[in-house]
Design a protein that fits this description.
Length: 151
């Protein structure tokens, strides 16, 4: 659910409901009303302010990481540190996570990737490891791969 807010939390990006049919589906009278006052018809179609605020609040809650979230590659059990083989495997995993983060950041800046880069585009962050230092205590909304997920 972490990715929902950037896409659906801002009503003009993705209205949660349509209160009336879109103008092309209404018939000739509806299309005439649309041609005469497009702003009014669109505002009548979009969700009300209350409905929009409710959806925004719900998506914000669902999209937020827990304050005590643990991310893949960031927390090593104390017992793992005692075992050299396990510790080395964890360090290798952590390094791979950092390389993935660098690659995803590179893709997000690539102008050839129209779905990630450009005006109005939301960069891909959902499964990107946490920003920079994987040992950072917190990451911002939508970034980092949680160790486990439950709702």
């Amino acid at each position: 659910n972490f990715s929902q807010y950037p896409y659906g939390g801002y009503v003009p990006n993705r209205p949660s409901i349509a209160r009336i049919n879109m103008p092309s589906e209404i018939g000739p009278d509806g299309m005439r009303a649309y041609m005469e006052a497009p702003d009014k018809v669109l505002l009548d179609t979009f969700p009300s302010q209350y409905q929009s605020a409710l959806v925004m609040a719900i998506l914000d809650v669902l999209s937020s990481h827990s304050s005590g979230e643990e991310y893949l590659g960031t927390y090593q059990e104390p017992a793992w540190q005692q075992n050299g083989k396990i510790n080395n495997a964890f360090e290798d995993f952590r390094e791979r996570m950092l390389r993935i983060a660098v690659q995803v950041n590179k893709w997000n800046r690539d102008p050839e990737r129209k779905n990630r880069c450009g005006p109005g585009m939301v960069p891909y962050v959902q499964l990107r490891p946490s920003d920079g230092d994987p040992m950072a205590a917190k990451t911002v909304m939508g970034m980092g791969v949680p160790t486990s997920i439950s709702i």
